């Protein structure tokens, strides 16, 4: 019989991944192929956000979700994870580049097109955390309104 790893080993394992996962990293974590990852993302099995053509997958949400799929524990909903916790109320494009693990041109395109709610203050873009939180709810594949 195998036992779950001690919490510190598990924490170290998850800390070895960045806060925002690529689909390749997600495939490695789940020991499945990338096609399976995309199928599970599209069907809402794996919690994620579809922003334009990009999937944004947060490590801590995946970890919480996997804890609920463990065969040793009863099936319970994943504990909510606030991926915006610890961020300032006003975010810059740099904050979004780190949060979403996307390039500056992608973040600018999302802000300019209104995909990410943002406004100009002087010569810089600013995103209100509360508005970003609301936008993310709309992009979540965990909502009943989600559609490709």
Could you please describe the fold and organization of this structure?
This protein is an alpha+beta fold and 148 residues long. The protein folds into two domains: 75 residues, Arc Repressor Mutant, subunit A (Orthogonal Bundle), CATH 1.10.10; 49 residues. Strands 1-3-2 form a three-stranded antiparallel beta sheet. A three-stranded antiparallel beta sheet has the order 4-6-5. The longest helix has 11 residues. The protein is globular and about 55 Å long. The protein starts with 6 loop residues before the first helix and ends in a 9-residue tail after the last helix. The mean pLDDT is 89.
Topology (SSEs and partners):
Blueprint: H1 7-15, E1 20-21, H2 23-30, H3 34-43, E2 49-51, E3 54-58, H4 59-68, E4 90-91, H5 93-100, H6 104-113, E5 119-121, E6 124-128, H7 129-139
Antiparallel strand pairs: 1-3, 2-3, 4-6, 5-6
Helix pairs in contact: 2-3
Protein name: DNA binding domain-containing protein, excisionase family
Pfam families: HTH_17
InterPro entries: HTH_17 (IPR041657)
Key phrases:
single chain, 148 residues, alpha+beta, Arc Repressor Mutant, subunit A, three-stranded antiparallel β-sheet, 7 helices, 45% helix, 14% strand, HTH_17, DNA binding domain-containing protein, excisionase family
